[in-house]
Amino acid sequence: MKVDLKNKIALVTGSTRGIGQAIALSFAENGATVVVNGRNAERGKKVVEEINALGRESIFIRADMGDQEQVNSMVTQIIEKFGRIDILVNNAGINVGKEGRVPVYEFTDANWHRIINVDLNGVFYCSKAVAKHMVEQKSGKIINISSIVGIVPLRF
């Protein structure tokens, strides 16, 4: 899909692998400068190298979307470096792996709170931090990616 994203600054959370990585690469292929985000610096560096190989600028910023201070710091770094954020893709999400695939009455409070903090609060934290800059710029797009888990019931 071709869309002109030349001169656009895009932040894609959770973009060190999977869907987020594919979105980041697609944005770069369409001309955007891409901020890669995740918790794994090694994977983040590889995605940045892939984007650079396409002739586009990219940086990696490690930040946990479940930590509002880290999110705010990330957004500040982007604004200081690029002056704006044109596109935010809230893609970061976690699951608890096989140990979390248990009946709802066995699901731990700790796993529940961690997932809610990243998958729900993280979208709020990032949107809140970026939206004020988009209002000042008088432009911007926020895209939220969700999981099939949001519509699949927990077993019991």
Which features would summarize this protein structure in a list?
Rossmann fold, 5 strands, five-stranded parallel beta sheet, alpha/beta, 15% strand, 156 residues
Protein topology:
Blueprint: E1 9-12, H1 18-29, E2 33-38, H2 41-53, E3 58-62, H3 68-82, E4 87-90, H4 109-137, E5 141-144
Parallel strand pairs: 1-2, 1-4, 2-3, 4-5
Helix pairs in contact: 3-4
Plain-language structure description:
It holds the Pfam family adh_short. InterPro entries: NAD(P)-bd_dom_sf (IPR036291), SDR (IPR050259), SDR_fam (IPR002347). Belongs to the short-chain dehydrogenases/reductases (SDR) family. With 156 residues, this protein is an alpha/beta fold. It has a single domain (9-147), classed as NAD(P)-binding Rossmann-like Domain (Rossmann fold). Helix content is 44%, strand content 15%. It contains four helices and five strands. It has helices at residues 18-29, 41-53, 68-82, 109-137; strands spanning 9-12, 33-38, 58-62, 87-90, 141-144. It has a five-stranded parallel β-sheet with strand order 3-2-1-4-5, with helices on both faces. α3 (68-82) packs parallel to α4 (109-137). The protein is globular. 35% of the residues are buried. The mean pLDDT is 94.
